[in-house]
Each structure stands twice: as structure tokens, then as C-alpha cells.
């Protein structure tokens, strides 16, 4: 065998690191990966946006709150100044500075030269400021006896006479809060991006895995395992739908293959037998010395046998042709009643001869689409069968419309077909017991069914009490 | 009468040639499409029997080339392809008749004779005559020996075809094709009964029968000698 010498495909024997990179490269090439990457980028951008917004609003909020407190305090002090003058203000500031308000408020009142008059700060942190307004500075605070410098924010007002008032606040808590928010947001951002990355990768892997399932099944089917199917995961999503459709396609292919195999088997069996009989007959005629009359008789019988074989062969070809299903020009509408009329006209004399009363009941213009000739032959086969198996009596052909379907019925009063055999008679070469002795090849009904299916119709055999009623239904041609 | 047989299968070709020669025809053979076209173009043939699948030049192409050159020699196409579609294609390409392989020699012979006959009877006649039998295509009446005969429409069509091909063998398949437009052979002998009914009407009360059965081949409507 040649195949013994074929090496495994290169991809399978790659060393593992190369294989890993190969896999990564493949991953990057996939549509799923690109989709996941895009998803991740959009996700990351929106997470960043949200975090920035949260940080900005919370930090801003704390600052505004500080400023609002300072403003209120200054307003209060300004009222005191208005009522009690500079000395009152100094007193209040001194009183407030002495008590540990706990709110970490900072006060300073200075004379025009910048010398402190009262307050809990020793002097101007950044030199004497020129005018009114907000300033940020640092203050020395003793925490557990160690001087620590804290950030602070305050507002300064120049009072009449050059006296200055500074009200501020230690904002180390706010700064800590802001740092905390920053850190929290940073962490949650990283977690979110990590989750996004993992999610994207998982999504991509999942997509890839299901596509891979489809691919692997296709490969197995191509390798000859026709009964393999793509597994479903029952979610009914697009992949399930794809799998269902692929499976249906495979079903159809398998059915066709099986049908073809059956045909081959049937042909082998049912043509080989008469062929060997023919051969035997000719061989016998050759060895037997016999007279010229016997010889020509043997040849005549052989020709008859060959003719029967050809009829069978033609019938098989016609069935195959009708089953192939692609050639019929379905665009051509024709009147089913007209086909029935022509067939009844052709069969009427022979039917009468054999003791039948052949009648046609047809509604006018029952149009269907398809091949008039194929349908004529199907009807002819049904009439042939009726004439062959029934023993005279009424033989009716009916054409009518029912539920927007075109119906063609052939009903006889013969022996009929037992219920349990009404399906198998459509199979090739099937001949029921009592009819085995009559001439025929068991292909008539197979052709009828093939023609009916080709015209998207249905066929059913029913009891005619007594007899057989074959009912063919077709979609109407809507012109 | 000179015939040309274009057929690549040597055995089939010599079988046809032998049969036709025995029936009194002069037969030339071509085993290949181009050779067939060359012979047919040089003319002088009364009819051509043409296989559809040929090496070199396909049968339908040969026919197309002949017809394009204005050569109207009647042609019968032989083919293993027997679906209605295939026939239609063959006839559209310029074939005058189409016979599916395998065939009985008598069938081929009958069809060739019909083709040769068709070439002659081109005049647009309104009355067909065989012996004392008369068929009027306009009034759609039939008379024999001056007496009117009542025919059903299908019997009239059958008789018309037989009379148009009078004196030659007409096979059951030819009748199914031309009178009923059926391109397959039903299992029941439907044609025989039709013919015997027609015979009842045109021959029963007359001394000399016109419609004869040719064993193993078909029927022949012929004026008595």
C-alpha cells in the first residue's frame, strides 16, 4: 500500500513550543480573536472613561465642601468684625484657636506688617500674600510629638487698615480620601480590564471551539464516516442552527448515497439473474446439436429475454432520472386534466377489451407545474397496474382540486394491497406474492413515486372498498 | 436509395449496414463525426443515420453544420440518451427523427422509410387515398368504396398517420410517438386494441383488407395489388 509510506502531516509532529506558537498564530488569525480584541478595546475605553468621571466628581466634591465650610466661617467672622470691631475678631479667633475644634480649622489674624495677632498658625506660610483670594499651603502639625506637614487650603481677606484674616482648613483627610479613591479606581479598573481580557479570550475560545467541532465533523464525514453529525449544545443559537442545517444536509447526502447503493444492489441482483439465464440459454443452444428450427427458437427466446432486460434497464434509468430531480422544467405549467384525458383515451379500448369500465371525472384546468411526459408515464403505470391486477369492473380516474392541491386519483375494484404492504410496493423490484407469476419488473410504482416526488407531490395508496385507490397530490400552479 | 450511416461503434455500424443493404439500400459508413460531415456535405444521400455521441465532432454538431450549409437531407438521430429533453435537443438541432438505443432493426427500418417518404410527399394535399379508402382532411370524413365510415377523433388521427405512411411498416412506438405523443412504451398493448378497432371499421365489410399486421414489427396500410 502506498499510504503506508505517507508521513504524518507536519503540523502533527511539531515540537511543543512551536506547536504552541503555531496555535497562538492561528488564534490571532481567527475571526473570533479579532472580535474579542475589538470587544476588549471598546470595553477598556468605556471602563477608563467611567473611572475618570468617578474620580473627578468625587475629588471635586470634597474640595467644594472644604471651600464652602471656609466661606461660611469667614462670613461668620465678618459679621463679628462688623459688630465688635477688630478686637472682637481677635478675641474670637484666639478663642477658636485655643479650643481644639476637631475640624482642623486654621485661623490667623495679622497686623498690616504681617505680625500675628491671634490664630493657631505661627505665621504666613508663604509670605504675606498680596491680595484677597484662595491659597494652598502646608502646615506643621504635631502627630505624636513629631512635626508632620499637612496640606491645607484657605482664604484670605484684607480688612480695613491693612489687617489680614486667614481662614483655612487642614485638608490632609481630603487628600487621603482622594488618594484612596484614586487607588480604588485604579484597582477596580485593572480588575475590570482583566475580566474583560479573560472574557474576550473565553468568548473567542468558545466560538473557536464550536467552529472547530463543525470542522472536525466535516473532516470525519469527508474521510468516509457518513453517519457522523455535528453535536448540538441545545441553546438554539446561531451555531446550533448552523449545526442543524449541516446535519440536515448530511442526512440528505446519506439518504441519497444509501438510495444509490440500494439501486446498485437491486440492479446487480435483478439484472444479473436474467442475464445469466440468457447466457445459459444461448450456451445450451450452442452445445446441443439440434436442428435449425430449435436453434432459431432458442435465439428468439434469447432476444425476448434481452428485450425484457432492456425494458427493466430503461425503467431503472427513468426512475433514476426522475429521482435526480434537477432536470424537470418546473416552470412549465400544464393541465393535469388534459394529461388524464389523453391517458384515458389511450387506455379506454384495451380496458374495455379486458372487462373494465374506464371513466374519467375531471374538473377543468387543474394546472400544475412540471413535466407533462413524466406525469403521463406515471398515470400510464397506474393504469397498467390496475388492468394487470384487477379483474375488470369500474376503473375510475379523477382529477380535482382539494385544499389548493391538485389531486389525481386512480381507483379500481381489484384485490387491492394489504395495509402493511402499502409502503414497500414503492420500492424497486418489489412484487407481492400473488403477482409474482404475472409478467412485470416491479418498477412501475417506483417510477410513479419518483415522478410524484419530483413534482413536490405526495402519493398514498388506500382501500377502495374493495380495490385500490392511488391518490396523487400536487401543489397547484398559481399563474 | 443511398444512405449514410455515421456511427463510431463498428459492430453497431456493420449491423445497421448489413440490415439496410439486405433491405435494398446502398449504404456508406463513417466512423467519426468529421468524416460523416464531409461525406454528407458532398451530397447524394437520401437519408442519414447519425449517432449522437461521436469522436471528433458530436452528432448534433454535425447536424448543425449540415443544416447551416443548407443541406436538408433527412436525418435520423441514434442515441442512448432517451429522455424527452434529449429528444427535444436532437430534433431542435435539425434531426427529423430520434431513435433510442438499443432498438429493433425493424424499428429503424420503418423509421428510415418514413423519413424517405416524407421527403416525397411534400405537397399540401387535403385528401389522402389508399386504394378505395379516402380521407378528407378538411371535412374530416372517411369514405371507402363510396360509403361513409364513422370514426372517433383518435381513430381518425391514427388512420391519417397510417395513410400518410401507406405502403410501409409503422411500428407501435412510432404510433405512440406521433399519434399520442407518448415517448415510452406502456406495459399494456394499448396500440393493438386501437388498431384492431380501426380495422373493424375500415376493413370488416370489405373483401380485401387494407390494414395488415406485420409480425414482430408493426402495421402496414397498403392498397391491394
Low-confidence runs of chain B (pLDDT<50, min 5 residues)? none
Q: How many angstroms separate the termini of chain A?
A: 61 Å
What is the percent of helical residues of chain A?
A: 40-55%
Sequence of secondary-structure elements of chain A: HHEEEEEHHHEHEEHEEHEE
Amount of beta strand of chain A: 15-25%
Strand content of chain B: 15-25%
Characterize the biggest β-sheet of chain A: 5 strands, antiparallel
Instruction: Please provide the count of β strands of chain A.
Output: 12
How would you explain this protein's 3D organization?
The complex is a heterodimer of chains A (479) and B (225). Chain A is α+β, with helices and mostly antiparallel strands and 479 residues long. Chain A folds into 3 domains: 1-220, no CATH class; 238-321; 326-475, Histidine kinase-like ATPase, C-terminal domain (Heat Shock Protein 90). Chain A is 55% helix and 18% strand. Chain A contains 8 helices and 12 strands. In chain A, the strands form 3 sheets. Chain A has a 5-stranded antiparallel β-sheet with strand order 2-1-5-4-3. In chain A, strands 7-9-10-12-11 form a 5-stranded mixed β-sheet, covered by helices on one side. In chain A, strands 6-8 form a two-stranded antiparallel sheet. Chain A starts with 15 loop residues before the first helix and ends with a strand. Chain B is an alpha/beta fold and 225 residues long. Chain B has 2 domains: 2-120, Rossmann fold, CATH 3.40.50; 127-221, Arc Repressor Mutant, subunit A. Chain B contains 8 helices and 12 strands. Chain B has helices spanning 10-22, 33-41, 59-68, 84-92, 105-120, 153-164, 172-179, 190-203, and strands spanning 2-6, 26-30, 47-51, 75-79, 97-100, 127-130, 133-136, 141-144, 147-149, 169-171, 211-214, 218-221. Chain B has a 5-stranded parallel β-sheet with strand order 2-1-3-4-5, with helices on both faces. In chain B, strands 6-7-8-9 form a 4-stranded antiparallel β-sheet, covered by helices on one side. In chain B, strands 10-12-11 form a 3-stranded antiparallel β-sheet. In chain B, a hairpin with a 2-residue loop joins strand 6 and strand 7 (133-136). The two termini of chain B are 23 Å apart. Chain A binds chain B through residues 310-311, 314, 317-318, 321, 327, 342, 345-347, 349-350, 353, 371, 373-374, 376-377, 380-381, 383-384, 387-388, 439-440, 444, and chain B through 82-85, 102, 154, 180-190, 192-194, 197.
Amino acid at each position: 500500500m502506498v499510504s503506508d509510506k505517507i508521513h504524518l502531516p507536519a503540523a502533527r509532529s511539531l515540537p511543543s513550543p512551536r506547536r504552541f506558537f503555531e496555535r497562538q498564530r492561528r488564534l490571532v488569525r481567527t475571526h473570533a480573536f479579532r472580535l474579542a480584541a475589538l470587544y476588549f478595546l471598546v470595553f477598556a475605553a468605556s471602563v477608563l472613561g467611567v473611572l475618570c468621571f468617578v474620580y473627578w466628581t468625587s475629588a471635586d466634591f470634597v474640595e467644594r465642601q472644604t471651600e464652602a465650610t471656609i466661606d461660611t466661617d469667614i462670613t461668620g467672622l465678618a459679621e463679628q468684625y462688623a459688630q465688635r470691631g477688630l478686637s472682637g475678631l481677635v478675641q474670637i479667633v484666639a478663642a477658636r484657636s485655643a479650643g481644639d475644634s476637631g475640624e482642623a480649622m486654621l485661623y490667623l489674624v495679622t497686623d498690616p506688617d504681617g505680625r500675628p495677632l491671634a490664630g493657631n498658625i505661627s505665621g504666613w506660610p508663604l509670605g504675606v500674600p498680596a491680595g484677597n483670594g484662595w491659597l494652598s499651603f502646608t502646615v506643621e502639625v504635631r502627630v505624636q510629638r513629631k512635626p508632620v506637614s499637612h496640606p491645607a487650603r484657605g482664604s484670605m481677606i484684607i480688612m480695613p487698615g491693612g489687617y489680614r484674616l486667614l481662614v483655612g482648613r487642614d485638608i490632609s483627610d481630603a487628600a487621603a480620601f482622594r488618594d484612596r479613591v484614586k487607588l480604588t479606581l485604579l484597582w477596580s479598573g485593572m480588575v475590570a480590564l482583566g475580566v474583560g481580557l479573560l472574557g474576550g479570550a473565553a468568548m473567542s475560545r468558545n466560538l473557536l471551539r464550536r467552529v472547530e467541532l463543525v470542522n472536525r465533523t466535516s473532516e470525519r464525514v469527508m474521510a468516509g464516516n457518513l453517519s457522523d453529525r455535528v453535536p448540538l449544545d441545545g441553546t438554539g443559537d446561531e451555531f446550533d442552527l448552523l449545526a442543524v442545517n449541516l446535519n440536515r444536509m448530511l442526512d440528505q447526502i446519506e439518504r441519497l448515497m444509501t438510495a444509490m447503493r440500494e439501486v446498485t444492489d437491486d440492479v446487480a441482483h435483478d439484472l444479473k439473474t436474467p442475464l445469466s439465464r440468457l447466457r445459459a440459454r444461448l450456451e445450451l443452444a450452442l452445445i446441443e446439436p439440434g436442428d435449425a428450427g430449435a436453434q432459431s427458437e432458442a435465439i428468439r427466446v434469447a432476444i425476448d429475454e434481452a428485450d425484457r432486460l432492456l425494458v427493466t434497464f430503461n425503467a431503472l434509468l427513468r426512475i433514476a432520472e426522475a429521482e435526480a430531480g434537477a432536470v424537470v422544467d418546473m416552470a412549465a405549467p400544464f393541465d393535469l386534466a388534459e394529461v388524464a384525458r389523453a391517458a384515458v383515451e389511450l387506455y379506454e379500448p384495451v380496458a374495455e377489451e379486458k372487462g373494465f369500465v374506464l371513466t374519467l371525472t375531471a374538473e377543468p384546468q387543474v394546472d400544475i407545474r412540471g413535466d407533462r411526459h413524466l406525469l403521463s408515464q406515471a398515470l400510464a403505470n397506474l393504469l397498467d397496474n390496475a388492468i394487470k391486477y384487477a379483474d375488470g369492473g369500474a376503473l375510475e380516474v379523477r382529477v380535482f382540486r382539494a385544499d389548493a392541491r391538485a389531486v389525481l386519483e386512480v381507483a379500481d375494484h381489484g384485490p387491492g394491497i394489504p395495509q402493511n404492504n402499502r409502503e414497500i410496493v414503492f420500492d424497486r423490484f418489489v412484487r407481492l406474492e400473488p403477482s409474482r407469476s404475472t409478467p412485470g419488473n416491479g418498477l412501475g410504482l417506483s417510477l410513479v413515486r419518483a415522478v410524484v416526488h419530483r413534482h413536490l407531490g405526495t402519493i398514498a395508496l388506500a382501500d377502495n372498498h374493495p380495490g385500490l385507490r392511488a391518490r396523487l397530490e400536487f401543489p397547484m400552479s398559481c399563474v | 436509395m443511398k444512405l449514410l450511416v455515421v456511427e463510431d461503434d463498428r459492430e453497431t455500424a456493420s449491423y445497421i449496414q448489413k440490415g439496410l443493404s439486405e433491405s435494398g439500400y446502398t449504404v456508406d459508413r463513417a466512423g467519426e463525426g468529421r468524416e460523416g460531415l464531409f461525406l454528407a456535405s458532398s451530397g447524394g444521400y437520401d437519408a442519414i443515420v447519425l449517432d449522437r455521441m461521436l469522436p471528433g465532432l458530436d452528432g448534433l454538431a454535425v447536424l448543425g453544420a449540415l443544416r447551416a450549409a443548407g443541406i436538408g437531407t433527412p436525418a435520423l438521430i441514434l442515441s442512448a440518451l432517451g429522455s424527452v429533453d434529449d429528444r427535444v435537443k436532437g430534433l431542435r438541432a435539425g434531426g427529423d427523427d430520434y431513435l433510442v438505443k438499443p432498438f429493433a432493426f425493424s424499428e429503424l427500418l420503418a423509421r428510415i422509410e418514413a423519413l424517405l417518404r416524407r421527403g416525397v410527399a411534400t405537397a399540401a394535399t387535403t385528401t389522402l387515398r389508399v386504394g378505395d379508402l379516402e380521407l378528407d382532411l378538411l371535412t374530416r370524413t372517411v369514405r371507402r368504396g363510396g360509403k361513409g365510415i364513422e370514426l372517433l377523433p383518435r381513430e381518425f388521427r391514427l388512420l391519417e398517420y397510417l395513410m400518410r405512411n401507406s405502403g410501409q411498416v409503422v411500428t407501435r412506438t412510432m404510433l405512440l410517438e406521433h399519434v399520442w405523443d407518448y415517448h415510452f412504451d406502456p406495459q399494456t398493448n394499448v396500440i393493438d386494441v386501437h388498431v384492431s378497432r380501426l380495422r373493424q371499421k375500415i376493413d370488416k365489410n370489405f373483401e380485401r383488407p387494407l390494414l395488415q399486421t406485420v409480425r414482430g414489427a408493426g402495421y402496414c396500410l397498403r392498397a391491394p395489388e
